[in-house]
Amino acid sequence: MTDKAIVVAVDGPSGSGKSSVSKGVARRLGLRYLDTGAQYRAMTWWMLHNGVDVTDGQAVAAACVKPVIVSGTDPDEPSISVDGEEVGKQIRMAEVTAAVSAVAGVQPVRDRLIALQRQIITAALAESGGVVAEGRDIADVVYPTAESKIFLTASPEARAARRSAELGAVASGGAGTTLADLTRRDAEDAKTTRPHEAAPGAIIVDATHLTLDQVIERVVELVEAARG
Ligand code: DC
Prior knowledge:
The protein is an alpha/beta fold. The protein is about 50% helix and about 15% strand. It has one domain: P-loop containing nucleotide triphosphate hydrolases (Rossmann fold, 3-Layer(aba) Sandwich), CATH 3.40.50.300. The termini are close together. The relative contact order is 0.22. The protein binds 2'-deoxycytidine-5'-monophosphate (DC). The site of 2'-deoxycytidine-5'-monophosphate (DC) has 15 residues, from helix 2, helix 4 and helix 9. 2'-deoxycytidine-5'-monophosphate binds near residues 36 and 192.
């Protein structure tokens, strides 16, 4: 294995386990961790908090230059702040989840966040062993030269069950509601990114019948193979 700094792109649909897998892989390999979905959520939280109509693309485009979004990239303690306020909990609220696809579909929002993501990745390459970046478009848009590209997927039922367990089945109304919600979000996200399609050069990992540890192990093997 060489010590060359690397970028690991982990893309995939909602509920595929990207966050847990990406953090686990980053810890195992001593890399930084970047959650790009958290940035889209932070942008959405700021819009809602500041009374911007998230269904008005022009209003969102005009406002999206204002919030200062900072992502902490320690996989043991990932953080996200907006204008200095830590919003890690707020961005997981149902209101944000319901609105995030609309905000993420506004091109100036994407342009701004993609530029920020590239800055963070470049800094991680310069200052550490590299970074595991997770999202929907890392391998094809944000960082097409990533040394290792993983497309993480799972059956809709497995994804819904995972999301339901994360949220607490009572609060989410059970896996049935979560499956409907996931399907709706997948469809909305598909207008902007390709949540069900692996980018060229990406290796598909299907997590449906694997435990979290097994998926992490598989991805670590793939990264080490790509590193040479
Ligand atoms: O991974 P997540 O559920 O936290 O992502 C939140 C939303 O952000 C998701 O609905 C799609 C969008 N997103 C995106 O468009 N591009 C990314 N790179 C990451 C997330």
